[in-house]
Amino acid sequence: MRGRYANLTRIRSLDPERDHLAIYQTMLRLEFPWDMKLGLNLAFNRSFSVPEIARVHVGTGELTERTQQRIDDTGLLMYEMVLHGFEHPRGRAALRRVNQIHRRHDIDADDHRYVLGCLVVVPTRWLDRYGWRRPCCHERRATHAFYRELGRRMGVTDLPASYAEFASWFDRYDAARLRPNDDAATIERATRALMRTRLPRLLAPLGDALVSAMYDAPLRRATRVTEPARPVRLGLHLALRGRARLLRWCGRPRRTPLFADGIRTRTYPHGYDIGRLGPRPTPTADRADPG
């Protein structure tokens, strides 16, 4: 398809460190919108499944009692930072809100690094396997640079210095800490219905099995999800690979960026106030933060 690689050509002309925001925006909004959104969902699901992190979320009740709103709030804060960057007023407001929310909880520094690692590694590996093309080296470096900068602004120190180093660190931490736990299983049951909405309507009868097939074996073990039948796993794999080939050879380059007319969610169909996203503020926890 003519022009299919125009964005990639432009990305390769940019500096992945200096221009990491522009590159990451292009990945999300033009090159891989469906895959990136799904990959980020899988990344958050994985981060919620580490016992220490899962315990915090179950304790607040946000993910189990207000599931749709909590997922929408998380997505909105993330997308505001990606769409606008950290220096734009909206990006700064989103970062400030993220820091206010996280300040409430005593979270281990490695757990913070793991959440960032999920956002760096999980979507990239999904694209490696099911994207219409694999991310190039500039895109990997830009992804790492974006989340390294987010981590810096959140006060997370000692992040791995490159994508490859972060992926290696992530795998070691994942193997050591992602283990079966009841809290992760509780969160997975609460969020599963939202994952099913990512599937085409024709596949709705197979929704639960297909969601399980999207998880890898360690995540299924951690969340106590039964392994789906091999035909389901193989069928999903072949369908996603077929979709990738179809997009590569027949897909038209996207002209209108994702979220060009704003971000719409079920919880906030008429708009939202960034400062009110997430759990309700408390006077002591949500003091002002410059972002």
Automatic annotation (TrEMBL):
Region (Disordered): 271-291
Pfam families: MPAB_Lcp_cat (PF09995)
GO molecular function, one term: oxidoreductase activity
Coiled coil: none
Ranges of residues in domain ER-bound oxygenase mpaB/mpaB'/Rubber oxygenase catalytic: 51-249
Annotated protein name in UniProt: ER-bound oxygenase mpaB/mpaB'/Rubber oxygenase catalytic domain-containing protein
